[in-house]
Amino acid sequence: MRNVLLLSHLAGVIVWIGGMFFVQFCLRPVAVTQLPPAQRLPLMAAVLGRFFRVVAIAVLVIVASGLLRLLDVGFAAAPRAWHAMMSSGLIMAVVFAYLYGICYPALTAAVAAADWQRAGQALERIRKGVVFNLVLGAATIVVAALGL
Ligand code: HEM
């Protein structure tokens, strides 16, 4: 059971962190240089819509599998790194909920209205949240893997 939980946990982490890395460092820089706002913003909204749907599932799997392992071992007996991971993981989940629940609907509404200025502002808010989660996620992986 431990291995199944760890595998689910890590699969979710790979999808979430890897996807954010791809969007930030591969998709966005090319879209910004090659596409005008009227093409780039609908593209980004559609890509993020698919990505966020998958991330919502990944977040549930990560939090559930992590908490089950913690309960299994007992909070008091769990290593410090696990407690640190739970805190940063929950912060990342709240940031994701804000991006998906508030910023993303603002982006799709602006895109539907062809209001590129508002769409650009909403996308910029999403980008900042994604960078925040990417940095916190990378730090979490370092802490988890090195057991700091
Ligand atoms: C509520 C959120 C989270 C909780 C409660 C949690 C809890 C745990 C626990 C208990 C383990 C040990 C599993 C085992 O050895 O059987 C673990 C492993 C791990 N977690 Fe998390 N986690 C959370 C979120 C995250 C996040 C957001 C990341 C990455 C961004 C992450 C990355 C890892 C990694 C890389 C391991 C493997 C460490 C190793 O085997 O040495 N976790 N997590």
TrEMBL record:
**In the record, which residues are listed under signal peptide?**
none
Q: Does the keyword Transmembrane apply?
A: yes
Any idea which UniProt keywords this protein has?
Membrane, Transmembrane, Transmembrane helix
Q: Which residues cross the membrane?
A: 6-30, 51-71, 91-114, 126-146
Q: What is this protein called?
A: CopD family protein
Residue ranges of every copy of the Copper resistance protein D domain listed in the record: 46-146
Domain of life the protein comes from: Bacteria
Task: Enumerate the Pfam families for this protein.
Answer: CopD
